Amino acid sequence: MDRTFAALADPTRRAILLRLEQEPGLSVSELARPLAQKLPGMMKHLDVLSDAGLITRTKTGRTVSVHLAVEPMREAMEWLKRYERFWNASLDRLVAFVEKEDEP
């Protein structure tokens, strides 16, 4: 999960994932073009995403297609949901406390 969050920390990598969600199976060069990335830089980003398990790459001839892999993101979302419940409950208790203190 650490690799997932580390990969998601970079805005370029988040943009790549968003693009793949909208257009699955793009080639590496198609992904690089709108991000103004040269191929070596794009490959480094894809390596990080691949190491985190967030994407898969398939080679057909000379073309490498990139696809999203959902399981690492699902695991990260489950982890975050646990903390969301904690913070929601904590904030609800804080609101109740403040409202009680404001009563005359």
In a few lines, what is going on in this structure?
66% of the residues lie in helices and 13% in strands. With 104 residues, it is of the alpha+beta class. A 3-stranded antiparallel beta sheet has the order 1-3-2.
Query: Roughly what is the average pLDDT, rounded to an integer?
Result: 90
Net shape: elongated
Q: Write the CATH homologous superfamily.
A: Winged helix-like DNA-binding domain superfamily/Winged helix DNA-binding domain
Order of helices and strands: HHEHHEEH
What is the helix content? 55-70%
Question: Would you mind describing this structure in some detail?
Answer:
This protein has one domain: Orthogonal Bundle (Arc Repressor Mutant, subunit A), CATH 1.10.10.10. Helices cover 66% and strands 13% of the residues. The protein has helices spanning 2-8, 11-22, 28-32, 39-51, 71-102; strands at 26-27, 55-60, 63-68. A hairpin with a 2-residue loop joins strand 2 and strand 3 (63-68). Helix 1 (2-8) packs antiparallel against helix 4 (39-51). The protein is elongated, with a radius of gyration of 20 Å. The chain starts with a helix and ends with a helix. The mean pLDDT is 90.
